[in-house]
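Appendix B, example 12.
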Amino acid sequence: MMDTTVLDRSRFEVKLGEYAVGPATALSDATALTSAQDYRRGSSRMMPVGKEDIAAKVPSAEYHASRKVDGEFTVLNFVDGQAFSINPGGTVRIGLPWLDEAAQLLSQAKVRSARIAGELYVYNDQRRPRVHDVNKIARGPKSDSDLQNLRFAPFDVIQIDEQDPSDVYASTFQTLESLFGDSQYNAPVETRVVQDRSEIKQLFVEWVEGQDAEGLVLRSDTAGLFKIKPRHTLDVVVVGFTESTDDRQGLLHDLLVAVMRTDGSLQVLTRVGGGFSEEQRRQMLSDLKDMVVESEYVEVNSDYVAYQMVRPEWIIEISCLDLISQTTRGGHVNRMVVAFDEEQDSYRVVRRMPLATAISPQFIRRREDKQLHPKDVSAAQVAELVEVSLIDSDALSFTLPTTQVIKREVFTKVLKGETMVRKFVLLKTNKERTTDDFPAYVLHYTDYSPNRKEPLQREVNVSSSESQIEALFLAMKQANIKKGWSEVS
């Protein structure tokens, strides 16, 4: 049983047996979450490279090349002989077989405390694991076998016994091997040392093309970090464009493209500015100018030039190196959903909903054999590659969870014959896991004094922590409710 000095067990939801899930605010040490988020933010600077660009973009150096595991980035925390995991979104997990084994191995190695970065994945000896599998089992395991198949692949040391790891990755990986080399549930990521770019290509062919690995991760103390992945192809619809400026005026700058949701709405995916010939840029711009329509939605390109929206008629094929559906803090990557009104020949805004960020998108070709239909430009193309929340929800009629009033306290005071009012309202939005547009908690303070020059004043505070917002509620009430104020029932 996890020590209550490490976490508040009462705030965890039991999923199966000893396995339970809780929020980061249930931990006694708030740095566990910030450490996971900081590491994730740093790793986002890893340069993505396609196989075809290895020679041009990867410097010649010695690398530790690791098999990229398709899972959920997670940090193993070990303290006081016990282990828990936390991801950048603040989800804490306890009571899993891999955590029990990790605690045992670290205790045997005389480690007092540790933070180890790795991938939480689902073991499957028939096919490569997918992040979808992790989410499915972690949210609703059906058996002990499911729990045993949730495993951890460590790839870096964040801290051991409050000491930072060596600056030499070879030493760091040796530490991981010494700690977890004989592990059943915590085996380090498969890693080989490669000396040049030809060996990198050979390993890509062996692991990625031959064994369906997600990709390679290259680490070099001198050359940096690289992610080598196969390019994904997607069929998308063009919804907007911008023209180049200055000496390139008259040429297409880039396209704004979208995918179609099951309800027929269009969700903006990415901007595509590469892969065009000069002749294509000239001809496409001329044709697209004849397709311009009105739009409530406005977006700008990297030069802050607004896209001209066009009728959703062109289907194109694009490629990208990667799709990322989470921010560095574990939140959703939200993209605008729009609806095209054929009678009005215009777009209207629907709402933002989760989708993904496309890394290094490139134009491949027009797809005149495709039509604007969910079968041809489906948002499911994205969901097949990364986990996308609410991908099957009807965006046109989607409603957010109802906000809950946790506390509402009203006080009055009569001064010079006038009644003053001070009101404190604490809300739980219940929307923070659905959209990043809302905080988890909101504290709203209203101060009405009719004798004042500005009678009505308001103050709003937000937080992702229930304990923090409760403390703010108490502090604000103590600061503003003194002698003479009476609570209204």
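The CA atoms of residues 132 and 387 lie 6 Å apart. The radius of gyration is 27 Å.
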